[in-house]
Amino acid sequence: MKHFALIGFPLGHSLSAAYFAEKFEREGIDAEYSPLPIERAEEVLPHCTELAGFNVTIPHKQAIMPYLAAISDESHAIGAVNCVKVTPEGLVGYNTDVIGIRKSLEGVTLEGTKAIVLGTGGASKAVQYVLRKGGAEVAVVSRSQGSADLTYEDLSAEFIAECDIIVNTTPLGMFPNIDNAPELPYAALSAKHTLFDCVYNPRQTKFLRLGAEQGAHTIDGMTMFIAQAEASWQIWSR
What we know:
By secondary structure, the chain is α/β, with parallel strands linked by helices. The protein has helices at 16-27, 73-78, 97-104, 122-133, 157-162, 206-213, 222-237; strands spanning 2-8, 31-37, 53-56, 70-71, 83-87, 90-94, 114-118, 137-142, 150-151, 165-168, 194-197, 217-219. The chain has 7 helices and 12 strands.
């Protein structure tokens, strides 16, 4: 039996173990997938003798990179890894988030649009990569001044009204803190806006609900979650 894992901290929100358990049973795969909550990325290293691969989530998507023997070209361009294959030559990193993001944004026009990305972590880097590749003008928002293009204080109603796409890559609104949402002037949203939340638990976050109430098109994180999980399995099983 092969063993796979998800590393991150905390992991109470994650549905990955349940997803893979159902997949393995349905497809008759002799494998198991377990959550491995670790506070520092390097804590996974002693477990790698028992693992065939693992996914990486908040907050380790960038921190894991120094411990990898190789990374894919796309992961290098993005600057973050969320999937690792354990090989005899060492750990090899990939970014399957980007596959999930592309799938989620199918049908959304990116060329010539103005997009803002909330958050600066590994998921943010993958979202920025996809948006810019699609021809969007991208600004990144952080709570801390100097760590991104903008802070939340810069997001006036006038600024938001001029945007087309807003993506939440922060954990705000994620289970169990479902009453949280990014601080935005939601009243400035309209039917011209697309809101995409990388959070998938719950599927309709407060961020998406507040956008939908203003007529915005909303995209939840479940498509991204499933697509990146399946892409990870393709990497591990080849």
